[in-house]
Every structure is written in structure tokens, then in C-alpha cells.
Amino acid sequence: MTVGWLNVAAAIDVQILESGHPLGAASDGPLRLPAGTHQLDLVNQALGYRSQQTVTIRAGEIARLRPSMPDGVLHVNAQPWANVWVDGEQVGETPLANIKVALGQHEIRFRHPSFGEQVRQVVVSASEPARVSVNMKP
């Protein structure tokens, strides 16, 4: 049997399955597969991500797969209000809704001139918007 390899480069770690059988994870590095065409499922259960990809493996070669990832949605609010940064990038003043961010973990920084700063971590999934709310008053 002739074989090749598959390298999956995704922004999040995904499990790779073929016909429901696990082949490995993207983080495992190149996976050894028989030469031919393969219908694969890329899955990250925790983030609600699932994608089907078709890849052709050639004997002795590494096929590279770079699946595009959907954006997740983030809603943030603060009482009474705050300026907000997501992963170091200023996004505006609360309340903020429908902020498009990559799937996975993000740092949300809230800053108010009288009440200081608060930082929260949030995991954004593909299945539903992530919501973060803080009370800036001590």
C-alpha cells in the first residue's frame, strides 16, 4: 500500500476523522494516510466547530490542508460603562454587540476613568455568542 501524509494547519486544534473513525489531531503533526482521496471531518467539540474537507493524498508527499474558520460572536457590557480592548485591540465603548472574533480564548480588558480596569478571559465558540459583563464600581 502506498502512503502519504496530511498536515492540517488550523487556527484551533481539531480532531480529524474519516467515516467517523479518529485519525488524530491537527496538533499531532503530519498524519500518515493511504494514497487516494479522503473525505474528512475536522471537529472541535468544545468550540462547536465542524467542517468537511476532501483531500487527495499522493504517495510519498505531504498534502497541506488549511481550513478557513468561521468567526465567533462576542457581546460585552459594563456598568456604568467602560472602554473595551479585545486581545489588546481597542473595540469601543460598552455596550458592544456582535463583535466578530476568532474561535477560541480571548482576553477582554475593561477600562473606566474613575473605576479602573478589569480583565476577563472568555472562550468564543461557533455555536452561540459569548457574553461578558462586568460591574466597574468597587
Task: Record keyword descriptors for this entry.
138 residues, mainly beta, Immunoglobulin-like, 2 domains, four-stranded antiparallel beta sheet, 0% helix, elongated
Structural write-up:
This protein has about 140 residues and is mainly β. The chain has two domains: about 5-65, no CATH class; about 70-135, Immunoglobulin-like, CATH 2.60.40. It is about 0% helix and about 65% strand. It has strands at about 5-10, 15-20, 20-25, 30-35, 35-45, 50-55, 60-65, 70-80, 85, 90-95, 95-100, 105-110, 115-125, 130-135. The strands form four sheets. Strands 3-2-5-6 form a four-stranded antiparallel beta sheet, with no helix packed on it. It is elongated.
Q: Mean pLDDT, nearest integer?
A: 95
Q: Radius of gyration, Cα only, in angstroms?
A: 20 Å
Distance between the termini: 67 Å
Q: Provide a count of the helices.
A: 0
Summarize the structure.
This protein is mainly β and 138 residues long. It has no helices and 14 strands.
Topology, please?
Elements lengths: L2 E6 L6 E4 L2 E5 L5 E4 L1 E9 L4 E9 L4 E4 L5 E9 L3 E4 L2 E5 L2 E7 L1 E9 L3 E9 L5 E6 L3
Parallel strand pairs: 1-7, 8-14
Antiparallel strand pairs: 1-4, 2-3, 2-5, 5-6, 8-11, 9-10, 9-12, 12-13
